[in-house]
């Protein structure tokens, strides 16, 4: 048992080490880079940003100015008050400096207001602009990019709402606070040294230690948080799996094991958390102590220097006033040293967001639907001659699996071909290559003899129509759903919409609805039957008058009654255009000009239905199973 525990903790230690030095550690703050990035992102709001920065600077001057005023006031309070004249003088002096405090209060009022107003406004505009740009950039990315886990819809949606927000915090309140504290520190030191360089140097001597200790503490806490977060996520995963598969856990009587595993997963973060809490606390206590050491030194050294020498002068001409100014300004500076690093975690998180935003804004995918390059196609001239020439393909996210291993096929203009084969053999992949969702790893797809990579992507896709198994309608009116298919930016005419609906055999149904084409599809069409939804999707594909029609199991999800009806609609729609159809049920593709039987990424058999039946191979077996032979 002990040995086991020892072994486990060794493995954990290795894991800990890996987590402590993750692939992407939190972004360390390079002040120049940070400033440059922020200025660039805030470019359109530069006037507001400058106003806000000036406001922050003035707010930062508050404490240093106060330390000077307080020092002077101490002097005033020690003025003699023996005679009436002297009392009046004291009163006058006190009033005068009270007025200064009042002036300062006005400056602070204006500066704080200006700072928050300008940062607030600039920040709102910045978030709005960034969200807009990030979403636009997201829409530009290729399908392979969306296959990656890091770009799953959940992650993208959360990034879209969080990243611009955290950059806004960075360029707003955070930047303001950084400037404020920096002015506190620099002006504090400058004032102390300016009033009495000897005492100033001594009082400032401990500030670097203060800064270093605060930075160290923040680093430790941040690393600890990062490491424990990973463990908590993994333990949450254990809990989630167990609860969601509770029946299996119960059947296998594994409740105790699951608890044991959960308990074990919680122990590691506890240990990391304890360790970073202990180290962090020690350093925190140290930084708090440093403040008082500083005061002790000032009183010990400065007190001795205040004592008049034989000739009545003090060392370096130190007076009570300068003594207090040094004391106050260095105390304020020390406080700012502590506070400036408390911003570090937020800054680091925001920098990470800024980094992610810049990364997506700059990314130009190879398959770029915003690209203006490539030759444009004239839909009137396109013949629709598709060829696959020795196509090899691996999905970018699964480079070790070769999905297509040399596919050669040809669809002459106006022909109807069918792809059949068991699931997972690469049929849908072939259709996706036709749509240029991906580029093949080897070989080429051609349209009318030209490699499809040479066409402008938008122009190329606009001559294709795709109907897949799931209709994927949107929460809009029926009219808008059909119009989505129209390839030109201008909206289609009423006649075009009605014609498409008639071609999809849905017009009569839509016309019978109380609101006709203006019927809203609540919940993406949950009120409609599968066949009705699919017909709207077909109308959406047909309104673009595609030269090439791609059907990926368009009837598989339907009831057998709907299947027959929709197969007829599609048969009609395929007339006069090149069609590639994937079908589960062979009955719908018997009449195809050519049938390709896929097996394991290769074409195993090809020919017409009767040729393949005569061959007596795989296709014949499939047909037998479906009682078609
Ligand atoms: N986006 C993807 N990323 C990685 N692998 C995929 C992806 N889509 C499909 N595959 C894999 O490619 C192979 C072929 O899939 P597909 O073309 O969809 O087969 P089907 O013939 O059933 O339509 C399968 O092994 C499948 O797991
Ligand atoms: Mg498929």
UniProtKB/TrEMBL annotation:
Domain spans labelled ABC transporter: 386-625
Compartmental location: Membrane
Listed SMART domains: AAA
One GO term of the biological process aspect: oligopeptide export from mitochondrion
GO cellular-component term (any): mitochondrial inner membrane
InterPro entries linked to this entry: AAA+_ATPase (IPR003593), ABC1_TM_dom (IPR011527), ABC1_TM_sf (IPR036640), ABC_transporter-like_ATP-bd (IPR003439), ABC_transporter-like_CS (IPR017871), P-loop_NTPase (IPR027417), Type_1_exporter (IPR039421)
Principal subcellular localization: membrane
SUPFAM superfamilies referenced in this protein's UniProt entry, alphabetically: ABC transporter transmembrane region (SSF90123), P-loop containing nucleoside triphosphate hydrolases (SSF52540)
GO-annotated molecular function: ABC-type oligopeptide transporter activity; ATP binding; ATP hydrolysis activity
Domain named ABC transmembrane type-1: residues: 50-349
UniProt family annotation: Belongs to the ABC transporter superfamily. ABCB family. Multidrug resistance exporter (TC 3.A.1.201) subfamily.
Protein name: P-loop containing nucleoside triphosphate hydrolase protein
Annotated organism of origin: Caulochytrium protostelioides
